[in-house]
Specification:
The chain is an alpha+beta fold and about 700 residues long.
């Protein structure tokens, strides 16, 4: 027997013994989770109370600084938005530097710097650290809150609000905050155009003076730095920051509804609905339930594609591209949300399935394999986050702010591994309340309201506007009011005539209209010129004094569109739409032209009662027109547009009516479509200027 054979026989024997002792049909038990070494950090406190945390990482010659100011949320009232504005203004000027100088000096050293109402952050190569810290110190200690920069921010904020005003997700977030926390709680305040217009520099300064104090602040220094260097930097650049007493506000704890309340935000013409089940939750960071509750939420919908909501509403039912949930812990009050964006026809079904998945977690233990898979994903995400030294600094600050035990993060994986199906069910029963929730829907009232009544404990669907203001029940339509009467009143209002026939006669004399408007696009000023001529000719140009960017012409038969890419013939559905949108004052002859006009009811817009007409042109295109019940002027038009991004709702609002040659025209026009918004100011209106047909010529 050769030695090779002896060895082979021995190996077979060992393998046989091993196979007799191991059941390979079962997966081996996982090794117990080890306590994590999060990495070291050092800390010290300056004489002014500023707590400093230092995390060394010498892989790259870079350093980063993050200052966190920990104050109780501020109730802003009618001036909601000034706290955020104050934070943005910090880096826009100091007593020693203008915004331009700050930007130039930051760019010169290749650094980045950001400020907010919660502090500031910055990073750079270590060799430029002193230069960066000089700027940070100047911003922190000597902000000037310049009026000119405030006005720029105000303009940007108003533009952003115009964009989000008709965005269903933004509407759901606004109304959801009001429902969960109430408008009397800082988390329930909504920034509006009116509140932004009231903000002034004195308010921003007052906020800074009251809350930016070192004794409630934390500074994290991370990167190619040692403790001695960090201490020198902190004392040199932040030591002069004066401490002071900071007011601590106390707010009533918001409570969820005792029963299911169904709340609807009407988005006329919408083909999809945003659906949300939500309520406030009393869960603070570091609470003994926090980790177990986060795993429960991950199983429901917080884990993306593998969440039960996603598997049910997307994979099984094909109701949506995505459905998720969140369970947010907070020092004051947390919240729960389960949500999706679905087609109108399945809005009620989506609500049913979301409630079903919530109840299933309360009523059934989750399978062991699903729980283990979720824990493994969370463990992996946690481990990957530790690759960044900023994570260690963040953990240190969180422990200080929330009073977490020293081993809260280092024992995280051990706590995850101990979670059982029973724990998940207990968390669901404690934090998931399908029978005490707000069911919030943003969508077409006509399409979904009746379907939602079955979910309401009281059988009522509450109506809200896009800012979370509850709408009063619409006033009954005046007896005898018809769609034609609304049109007649509008024609009399814009013509100044007291009789419908006289109004038609007066307006029929208008043969052509030229309108010039100013608009700002991406920070540049442009002019839009529109030309309309009976019986149905139209032209539009967009440009400035240097060039024409876009041009459109319709001669009554053919249409073209010109741009820097070239000339394009308008055909098909687009041409059919242009045919009817080009009509000059089509209201004068809706019936003759074959339009279908239906009075749909009364609704409120910006607190004013409006009559709603559904207007359908002969080609089947529909728009919803709103007329002020008091002035009879047209307030708004809503329509749906097919775009490369899908069907998008376009809202056009009219304001600032002025009389031109006996006819009223709106001089303020805003238009929102998806993420895009335009604010147009009319500068000139000309009637009957004998526009030549060449204006509309199609080459």
């Amino acid at each position: 027997m050769k030695f090779q054979t002896i060895l082979l026989v021995a190996l077979i024997a060992i393998a046989s013994c091993a196979s007799a002792q191991i059941d390979r049909s079962k997966a081996p038990a996982p090794a117990p989770a080890k306590e994590i070494n999060l990495g070291n950090y050092e800390q010290f406190t300056l004489d002014n109370g500023l707590k400093v945390f230092v995390v060394e990482n010498h892989k790259l010659p870079r350093v980063s600084f993050r200052l966190t100011v920990d104050y109780t949320p501020v109730m802003e009232g009618d001036d909601a938005g000034y706290v955020t504005m104050a934070g943005d203004l910090l880096k826009r000027g100091t007593e020693n530097r203008t915004k331009e100088q700050i930007d130039e000096q930051i760019d010169l050293i290749g650094a980045n710097l950001n400020t907010s109402s919660g502090g500031m952050s910055a990073s750079c190569l270590k060799q430029h650290a002193d230069d960066l810290l000089k700027i940070m110190s100047d911003i922190l200690l000597h902000p000037s809150f310049p009026e000119a920069e405030l006005e720029k921010l105000r303009t940007q904020q108003l533009s952003a609000l115009a964009t989000t005003k008709d965005d269903p997700n933004s509407m759901a977030e606004n109304v959801g905050n009001v429902l969960r926390f109430s408008a009397q709680h800082p988390y329930g305040e909504v920034v509006t155009e009116a509140s932004v217009k009231k903000i002034n520099a004195a308010q921003c300064r007052s906020f800074y003076d009251a809350y930016f104090k070192p004794n409630i602040s934390y500074l994290a220094i991370v990167g190619d730095v040692n403790l001695k260097e960090a201490r020198t930097w902190a004392e040199s650049y932040f030591g002069a920051w004066k401490k002071g007493e900071v007011k601590v506000a106390h707010y009533p704890t918001p409570k969820g509804p005792e029963k299911i309340r169904v709340c609807l935000v009407d988005k006329p013409g919408a083909v999809q609905s945003v659906v949300m089940v939500t309520y406030p939750v009393e869960l603070t960071p570091g609470h003994p339930d926090a980790i177990k509750a986060s795993v429960m939420n991950a199983i429901l919908g917080g884990d993306g594609f593998s969440g039960r909501l996603m598997q049910n509403l997307r994979e099984d039912k094909a109701y949506t591209y995505g459905s998720y949930s969140s369970l947010h812990a907070d020092k004051l009050i947390g919240d729960f949300k389960a949500y999706a964006q679905v087609r109108n026809e399945v809005t009620d079904s989506a609500v049913t399935e979301i409630l079903y998945e919530i109840k299933r977690l309360r009523d059934e233990d989750v399978p062991e394999d699903l729980l283990k898979m979720t824990i493994n994903k969370l463990s992996g995400s946690f481990a990957r986050s530790l690759e960044y030294p900023q994570t260690v600094a963040g953990f240190a600050i969180s422990k200080a702010i929330y009073g977490l035990p020293d081993d809260y993060y280092s024992s995280y994986l051990q706590k995850l591994e101990k979670i059982t199906p029973k724990d998940i069910r207990e968390m669901a029963q404690k934090y998931l309340h399908p029978d005490q929730a707000y069911i919030l829907v943003v969508g077409s009232k006509d399409a979904v309201k009746d379907k939602l009544t079955t979910f309401s404990s009281g059988g009522k669907v509450e109506m809200y506007d896009h800012y979370g203001v509850e709408l009063k029940d619409a006033k009954p339509l005046p007896e005898g009011l018809t769609a034609q009467k609304v049109i007649d009143d509008f024609l009399m209002a814009i013509s100044g005539q007291a009789d419908a026939k006289k109004a038609v006669k007066a307006l029929d004399k208008v043969q052509d209209v030229t309108i010039k408007m100013g608009v700002s696009l991406q920070g540049q000023s442009f002019e839009i010129n529109t030309y309309s001529k009976k019986p149905g000719k139209y032209a539009m140009t967009l440009g400035n004094e240097n060039m024409t960017i876009q041009e459109q012409r319709y001669d009554g038969q053919r249409g073209i569109s010109k741009s820097i890419q070239g000339t394009k013939e308008i055909t098909g559905k687009e041409l059919e739409d242009l045919k009817y949108s080009s009509l000059l004052m089509p209201e004068l002859q809706y019936q003759k032209l074959g339009f279908k006009v239906e009075l749909k009811g009364s609704e409120q817009i910006d607190g004013k009662d409006c009559y709603l007409l559904e207007v359908t042109d002969p080609a089947g295109g529909t728009e919803w027109q709103y007329f002020d019940a008091g002035s009879h002027l047209r307030k708004q038009i809503v329509t749906n547009r097919e775009t490369p991004m899908g069907n998008i709702t376009q809202t056009t609002r009219f304001d600032g009516y002025q009389v031109v040659d006996g006819v009223k025209f709106p001089f303020k026009i805003s238009q929102n479509m998806g993420p895009q918004s335009l604010e147009m100011t009319v500068t000139t209106v000309k009637l009957n200027s004998n526009l030549p047909d060449s204006t509309f010529k199609v080459d």
